[in-house]
Amino acid sequence: MRTLTQHHISDSEDFKRKLLKWSTQFHEVIWLDSNTYEQQFSNFDAVLAVDAFTSIQTDYHNAFDQLKEYQTITNDWVFGYLSYDLKNDVEQLTSNNYDGLKFPELYFFQPKKVFLLKGNNLEIQYLNMVSDELEADLKSIYDQDLKETNAASNQEHKVKISLRIHKDAYFEKVNSMLEHIHRGDIYEANFCQEFYAENTEINPLHIYNNLNAISKAPFATFLRVNNKFLLSASPERYIKKEGSKIVSQPIKGTAKRSENPDEDAVLKANLFTDEKERSENIMIVDLVRNDLSKTAVKGSVKVEELCVVYTFEQVHQMISTITSEITKDTHPVEVVKTTFPMGSMTGAPKISAMEIIEELEETKRGLYSGAVGYFKPEGDFDFNVVIRSILYNATQKYVSYSVGGAITAKSDPVKEYEECLIKARAMRQVLED
Question: In angstroms, rounded to a whole number, what is the distance separating the alpha carbons of residues 348 and 346?
């Protein structure tokens, strides 16, 4: 059982920075921040879960069944992540590419302490066993010295970024993918490449704060599981459940921003009318409709938004919104399992696309293009897509970020490479300071 208290926060931005800094003392941390981005399906402005009371960690073998059992028995808030490689639990697939990060394939925990911020209202939910710590914790949060964070932020070591796939090899691989498309094996596949740094130490909180400041993404995440960190500026929701309603919001279609307002408006308008980007998006909408139909009440799958262009700090993105209704006896984990991995990071047809991705990519995706989120006690959930993200294994001293793009019959390898660099810009900028 949990003790619930409500608090009025006078300066929510300042409080958020202090709350996040305070959280880093714990070994299990999930921080989710919408950066007050206007969105239709938002629950909270920010959420923090810290300090595991119970947890589950596993590889892909029967991972979703284990998660279903854990979520059912716990019957409380559970926060965690699903790595892309759980595809091997859902289909007869493998992941044999190089993995420098070594994250568990699934990790969820029941936090002792949960903070839910909406506007100026803060709701705190502590497990009863730690409820006597609440006042001292609040004082400690308010006492956090943010100046000290700024002073200690300079990295001693320069981060030297390497490419896992060099430019010429990238063109060859995209051309191989185009051959698969022209042969009719697939219509579209998301092809990703890794940028990495070895023997490198970073300050995760400093890097996250800088990445968040330049991106202000609606699904930003700071995650810590012991020595492993995710610093994410994700703009994309994977899937959400609210009551009987399921919402999925795939992104397909990216254009750069311009500081010149007139030019920026033209870039946005061009993305909206771009035939290739629209066809990419519509193919994934069809895939998501098909995935949602596996658990949907018959006839309830609807496309609420098709190819709407949203503007973020770094890029314009084309987003569609697909919804469905489920019955009361549909298990929440079943909805996640039957839609995973998300269509925007795989391709169509999904299984063939995942096989070809595995063959052509050089790196095991792991948490990249997986999802981070939570289940509420009553079974509602919300998960993002792990993109525009830096992953860090402090023990291995390995830093990584990956970017990808959808390859279709109309793809130009040079333009695809340029799109990858646009997506990678913010991560590179904060790592190289």
Answer: 7
Per-residue pLDDT band for 158 (boundaries 50, 70, 90) equals confident
pTM: 0.97
Cα separation, 284 vs 96, whole angstroms:
26
State both tokens at 328: 């009361």
- Helix/strand/coil percentages in the chain, nearest 5: 35, 35, 30
From the centroid of its chain, how far is CA 185? 28
As given in the structure block, the two tokens for residue 376 are: 């509420």
Would you say residue 272 has pLDDT above 60? yes
DSSP output for 294-325: TTSPTT--EEEEEEEEEE-SSEEEEEEEEEEE
Looking at 236, 325, 361, 416, which residue is catalytic?
236
Q: Catalytic: 376?
A: no
What HEC string does 340-374 produce? CCCHHHCEECHHHHHHHHHHHCCECCCCCCCEEEE
Query: Among the options 252, 337, 364, 423, which is catalytic?
Result: 252
46-72: pLDDT as tens digits = 999 999 999 999 999 999 999 999 999
CA distance 153 to 231: 15
Spell out where 119-179 has E strands: 121-127, 162-163
Q: CA nearest 408: which of 193, 174, 187?
A: 187
Closest to 402 measured CA to CA, from 433, 428, 371: 428
* Kind and range of the H or E run holding 407: strand 398-408
Q: Which residues contact 185 (CB under 8 A, 6 or more apart)?
A: 352, 356
For the chain, the straight-line distance linking the first and the last C-alpha, in angstroms and rounded, comes to 45
* 359 carries an active-site annotation: no
- pLDDT in the model for residue 38: 81
Residues 6+ apart with CB under 8 A from 339: 238, 239, 248, 288, 291, 292, 294
Report d(CA 207, CA 112) in Å as an integer: 26
**Which whole number is the average pLDDT over 172-190?**
97
